[in-house]
Amino acid sequence: MRAVRPVLVLLAVATGACVLPARAADFDCVIEPREIIELRAPIEGLIEKVNVDRGDNVRRGQDLVVLDAAVDRAAAAIARHRSVMDGAVRSGETRVEFSTAKVKRQKSLEENNFVSAQAREEAVTEQQLAQSELQDAKDNRKLAELELARQQEVIRMKTIRSPIDGVVVERLLNVGEFAEAGVGRKPILKLAEIDTLYVEVLMPVEAYGQVKAGMDAQVLPEIPAGARYTGHVKVIDRIVDAASGTFGVRLELANPQRRMPAGIRCKAQFTGIDVKPQRAAAHKAPAG
């Protein structure tokens, strides 16, 4: 029995070593805005007003830029007046009423052999022409209503509103400059959404399969010093870079009150990732 005791002690020591907490592996990362938008004019025009500047907070739907719409407002006023003009319609209705009554009289007279069939046919033709003119007047009024709606839409498009809650990163055009529409044209403003941040982490291939969507990770940004935040794995790249032996992981990080700036470096800590420290330290995040 005495020979067995040392074995039991060694087993107990070995068992105790197995319950040590797992070491967190550190990886370089960069904190980026959730979205960056280059705001261009949907329609060409001269910039009349820019309501924000670099560094300003903006709200979704806020008026940011106003293009000159004087000509469009004048065209809308003309279309509005034409859409309510009823002189041509009333004249057409009167002609239809008169020609209809005339047809009835001509038919009655023809039945009593007081007028020829040709006279009745002429009256019917006059009735059909009057009906066509009335329909033409109604169509013109409807076209004026549609033209008014189009001009109002053009005027609405000349007020450019923010599509997101965020901040102004850059102002590229100023009052008096011409804003061009279309892809590739110079934007007026550049906006960034930073209420939620993306943390782009570069990880060694050995960690592939150990990182799972929804997994928590600790994010330690350069500034403010000593800060620590919890992010969640949102995206895991399905393609590994063969040259560097790395793959990308994106964390989603809440940024209440926009306290943390975007565009800074950080460290991401994953608990339970089994990667050799020297290999993990060798992989750096791309410059942000």
Any chance you could write out the topology, listing elements then pairs?
Blueprint: H1 5-17, E1 24-39, E2 45-50, E3 57-58, E4 63-67, H2 70-84, H3 87-111, H4 117-157, E5 159-161, E6 166-171, E7 178-179, E8 189-204, E9 216-221, E10 229-236, E11 246-254, E12 264-271, H5 277-282
Antiparallel strand pairs: 1-8, 1-12, 2-4, 2-7, 3-6, 4-5, 6-8, 8-11, 9-10, 9-12, 10-11
Domain CusB-like beta-barrel: 198-271
Protein name: Efflux RND transporter periplasmic adaptor subunit
Domain CzcB-like barrel-sandwich hybrid: 39-179
Overall morphology: elongated
CATH architectural type of the domain at 24-35 and 192-282? Beta Barrel
Described by strand count, sense and barrel closure, the largest sheet is: 6 strands, antiparallel, barrel
With strands numbered from the N-terminus, the spatial order across the biggest sheet is 1-8-11-10-9-12
Instruction: Note the beta-strand portion.
Output: 25-35%
Family: Belongs to the membrane fusion protein (MFP) (TC 8.A.1) family.
GO molecular function: efflux transmembrane transporter activity
Organism: Ramlibacter agri
Domain CusB-like beta-barrel: 198-271
